[in-house]
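thought: fold this chain, then report.
action: predict
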Amino acid sequence: IENIVFKTTTPAEEVAAIVVEAVQGAGGYFPSPASFLPELQRICNENGIILIIDEIHSGMGRTGKMFATQYYDIEPDIICL
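observation:
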């Protein structure tokens, strides 16, 4: 994101929020790589960008924990249920 998107397409100061799913739920069940969400949170925190996690398919205990983000030890700004 930092080396491609922010430098070639949209500067970080023009990004209000990033929305991602911790676990992709369409066509299977694919969790994010272990370092992806912590690194994304670091980028958001450093640039004043809101991190929104969509937990519609993975929240409310469907992964064994209340939220899938708990496996990644992050605290998003907003969780969509």
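thought: worth noting. The mean pLDDT is 90.
final: tokens above.
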